[in-house]
Amino acid sequence: MASNPFAHVVTKVSGPPSAVDYGADKLLRGVVWGAAAVILLLVAYIVFELGRQAFPAMLEFGPEFIYSTTWDVQAKQFGILPEIWGTLYSSLLALLLGGILGVAIAIFLTQDFLDHRVSNVFRTIVEMLAAIPSVVYGLWGIYVLIPLIRPGANWLHDTLGWFPFFGTSLSGPGMAPAALVLAVMILPTVAAISVDAFKRVPYKVKEAAYGMGTTRWEAILKVMLPSASSGILAALVLGFGRALGETMALAMLIGNSNQISLSLFAPANTLASLLASSFPEAGPIEVQALMYAAIALLAITLLVNIFGLWIMKAATRKFEGK
Amino acid sequence: MTGNISQAILERDLDSLPQLKGSVLEGRGLRSRIYTGITWLLAILAAFPLFSVLYMLIAKGGARINWETLTELPPSAFEVGGGIGPAIVGTGVMVGIGAAISIPIGILAAIYLAEIDPHAKLAQIARFLAKVLTGFPSILAGVFVYASLVVAMKSYSAWAGGIALAVLMLPTVILTAEEALKQVPQKMKDAAYGMGCTRAQVISKVTLPTGMPGVITGVLLAVAGAAGESAPLLFTALFSTYYINGWEGLSEPTSSLSILIYNFSGMPYDNQIELAWTASLVLVLIILLFNILARVLGRQKF
Predict the structure, then answer these.
(1) Which of chain A's residues have a Cβ under 8 Å away from the Cβ of B171?
(2) Which of A9, B93, B142, B236 fits a disulfide with B160 by CB distance 3.0 to 4.6 angstroms?
(3) Distance between CA B14 and CA A161 in Å, rounded?
(4) Which ranges constitute the DSSP H helices of A201-283?
């Protein structure tokens, strides 16, 4: 009988996992479970820590903090209504502009307008827009955008000054440059999520529309856009959420002035840029008030983001049937 | 009957049949063309800021790129010359601290989400919170670390800055790594299980190595994002005009490129503003480098 030619290589053909293997398996499961739990603990700790720090200010200033308008450290009067207004107003303006541009780009990239190579160029451009840091946009805003739009803004103010949106002249930083930069910054978010939304609509749907004799744009506006609408809504809400929390570019461009104005050219302030500009030099009492403002910002952004994620989930479900 | 009708159509003069092909200038066709034109315009409009920013970075920032600028200390008010050396090192060190914390935790958590128990309650909550955290305002990471660490340590430090960056990198690492691990074909894992591997062996010998390119992409994107962050460093690392001084220097205020840009952008001195542009160019080059690496390494295999 011939002996097994592999005997010197294979000593044991098979066997159950050793105790070490079992141990390693248990250990890995435990470690990865712990790592997943870290994110829960982190979020809980963030909410707890911010809440704990803001608590004295919440007791002291109460709900009045939200709707009063002065921020006076000497008089110990703190109110963030102008900042809440500035945050919402700048984000809405940015959403209007960035939303239109973002959805247009998504249509442009997904509805067979371009051949493969050109659409890759535009996709890269959008990704690069997202990669440029906030401070660099701020710097660009100060030295390029503000000088660029100032003549136009002041002409609008001179000729249409009775119109509340153009009620003041643009002397430097202000709402318009801040909102414009913000629009550029949320455009990639809106475009990327909208592209996914359009891609989820089955190609058959569009073919059916073409089969009915629609033009390309009738197919896009009457069939594709409504079909992708929930995904696009999610894109807009998440873009809005991004705009609400954006800090540095706004701190550099919005003018940090505590006032409520409809004028696009007046300086204003946002919650995030209030934190950025006041925190480094704040005394203990002001720090508490700033923590209260941070909680307000956290609450607003969490609500908007959770709402956006919820819509996105519903939108995905629509086509994937999960 | 039907044969007669089609015969009648065939015999009729073709011009008198209803025209199915629309003319270029007909209302619907024209409208379609106008919309297409508008879309082109909007796309070019959206590309304008990018080219404007890049032009300014090269024109204004490129002028001062030299060894002296890249290594020297930042200048004080009326000084000429100077550089951004400490800021480059500071950004590198703090991003490094952030990466060292967030990458292991992120990848391990992703393994849990993708492999161990994707549908468990913990996995669902963790995934949801990670998504919520991607929209977390970066300044709040700074406020959080200030409240929990800077106050306790009684000093601004590179540690605090790095931890604030880690908070922001973690969700990106988790979500992209989970996506990458999910792309590993089930068949490969089944083959390994069929050979008698334990869960841990399948993960360490099949899933992780196969999914690694995607995981690395996510890590590089997280690093690129963190390098450009400034809001979380504003009152955790603060700023410094000197190089980090050894291990103990990590517990002292530290400079970073992004905060240098922020501080210098508002100064009334040309020298500082030029340096802000140079720092921007360096920062954008670093970020683009990581983005390109992420693309090259992350090409989909399946």
Answers:
(1) 39
(2) B236
(3) 62
(4) 203-211, 216-219, 225-227, 229-245, 248-253, 271-278
- How far is residue A114's CA from residue A107's CA, in Å, rounded to a whole number? 11
A228 lies in a domain? yes
Q: Is residue A59 part of a domain?
A: no
Residue B63 near chain A (CB below 8 Å): no
Query: Going by C-beta distance under 8 Å and a sequence separation of 6 or more, which residues neighbour residue A31?
Result: B108
Which ranges of A62-145 does DSSP label H, i.e. alpha helix? 64-67, 81-110, 116-131, 134-140
How many angstroms separate the CA atoms of A227 and A221, rounded? 10
> Is the four-CA dihedral A216, A221, A224, A225 of positive or negative sign?
positive
In chain B, residues with a C-beta closer than 8 Å to the C-beta of A138 are: 261-262, 265
Domain coverage including residue A263: 82-269+291-320
Kindly give the confidence (pLDDT) of every residue in chain B, 302 residues in length, as a single tens digit, with 9 standing for 90 and above: 455 556 656 666 566 555 666 566 678 888 888 999 999 999 999 999 999 999 999 999 998 889 988 988 988 878 888 889 999 999 999 999 999 999 999 999 999 999 998 999 999 999 999 999 998 999 999 999 999 999 888 889 999 999 999 999 999 999 999 999 999 999 999 999 998 888 999 999 999 999 999 999 999 999 999 999 999 999 899 898 889 888 888 899 999 999 999 999 988 888 999 999 999 999 999 999 999 999 888 765 55
B143, B144, B155, best to mutate vs chain A, most A CBs in 10 Å: B143
- Quick one: which of B102, B107, B286, B104 has its CA closest to B214? B107
> Which amino acid does the sequence have at A44?
A
Whether B173 has its CB under 8 Å from any CB of chain A: the answer is no
For residue A209, is it within any domain? yes
A81-110 and B27-56 helices, crossing angle to 10°: 120
Record: fold of B85-236+247-256: MetI-like fold (1.10.3720)
